[in-house]
Amino acid sequence: MTTYLLTGARPLGGDPTDVLLADGVVAALGAQARRAGGDAHVVEADGLVLLPGLVDLHTHLREPGREDAETVESGTRAAALGGFTAVHAMANTTPTQDTAGVVEQVWRLGRDAGWCDVHPVGAVTVGLAGERLAELSAMARSAAAVRVFSDDGRCVHDPVVMRRALEYVKAFDGVVAQHAQEPRLTEGAQMHEGVVSAELGLTGWPSVAEEAIVARDVLLAEHVGSRLHVLHLSTAGSVEIVRWAKARGIDVTAEVTPHHLMLTDERARGYDPRFKVNPPLRTAEDVEAVREGLADGTIDTVGTDHAPHAREDKDCEWAAAAFGMTGLETALSVVQAVMVDTGRMTWVDVARVMSSAPARIGRLTGQGRPIAPGEPANLTLVDPAARRVVVPEQQATASVNSPFAGQELPGSVVATFLRGRATVLDGALVEQGARV
Ligand SMILES: NC(=O)N[C@@H](CC(=O)O)C(=O)O
Ligand SMILES: [Zn+2]
Ligand SMILES: [Zn+2]
């Protein structure tokens, strides 16, 4: 296995130092790294920020079932290029990831592709139908060792089913990740309900449809003493509820997506379906509230909600288009633009919200660890001074539905290491055959 000497890298944005990666771990730092790294492959890292490998709790890889939109192979290539060393693959596949057999299949596909760790999310209910609990314990005990359960794409709407799921996952330290959307309040909804939806004549999706479920679920989590994770939180009211719940000692964590940190419902004005997403893009006040919530720790993680869609599902009129946008290859840049370059967060904070916190919530060992001797070498090296224009056709994801197409974003991933092996070097994928 190649050893790597990263020279002049800034761990978590701190002072420059040399970092030696050998035998899958961070072998040494500083002068010791330079001494021991005589025959190592040198990666010039002057001015580059070294982060723990990013961990996504919310990726749609679409395999099995929609390999025309993404496969485990194409999606994990995108992940590696985005700086990720682990992703959680959402359960809304066809067939649904609701049995030990299907989650093991996805887990194996991820392992064989080798671009990053793939942790399948288990469905909460059979077929995401919201009625009967899926075989949660069999998925937890399978080779995939599932700890995160979600019907994402759909809300676990029945409070009795949600309560049972929260109770059940306690047996194996699992977490229920809720897609908070009151279905009756969002029937036929096309975008955020507000001034813009009224002007465009599109059916609105009120903030309360999210907030009502977030409020109910934090109370349920408190009642049964279980862990709850709120996916893609998007409204100022949701931030307030989670803040209240945490102050009360409820074991809740929350996620925001890069697109909800940057974009508003004004984008719907062009009726461009790339901006159609669930939950919908909200108002500037909501965007400010989720930024503040992320900076003050109310929101624990940034999850990409990478949701690739085939061209025919997006190249159509707004009302007919699918909900969702890609995000793995732009997530870190968006967080840099919105949170770091504005002085609202440091790289230490970025490492928390994009690596250590999601790893902890997913109960991953070996990911999101400090950059210290003996720790697994899951790392990403970022050039914060770089700028690039997003060209979806040039990305590794098999789909082109990026809301940032044509936009210039700061920062680029120069290298990604998975247990000491480079998956990305010089900003390009290191193909299997070239890996040593
Ligand atoms: N976010 C989306 O708009 N779409 C997701 C489902 C989801 O995350 O709810 C998808 O699977 O396409
Ligand atoms: Zn969702
Ligand atoms: Zn999703």
Automatic annotation (TrEMBL):
EC number: 3.5.2.3
InterPro entries: DHOase, DHOase/Allantoinase_Hydrolase, DHOase_cat, Dihydroorotase_CS, Metal-dep_hydrolase_composite, Metal_Hydrolase
Pathway note: Pyrimidine metabolism; UMP biosynthesis via de novo pathway; (S)-dihydroorotate from bicarbonate: step 3/3
Pfam families the UniProt entry points to: DHOase (PF12890)
Cofactor(s) recorded in Swiss-Prot or TrEMBL: Zn(2+)
Record domain Dihydroorotase catalytic: where: 48-235
Residues involved in substrate binding: 60-62, 92, 278, 309, 323-324
Keyword Metal-binding: yes
Keywords carried by this UniProt record: Hydrolase, Metal-binding, Pyrimidine biosynthesis, Zinc
Entry keyword Zinc: yes
Note on cofactor: Binds 2 Zn(2+) ions per subunit.
Family: Belongs to the metallo-dependent hydrolases superfamily. DHOase family. Class I DHOase subfamily.
Function, as annotated: Catalyzes the reversible cyclization of carbamoyl aspartate to dihydroorotate.
UniProt protein name: Dihydroorotase
Record organism: Cellulomonas wangsupingiae
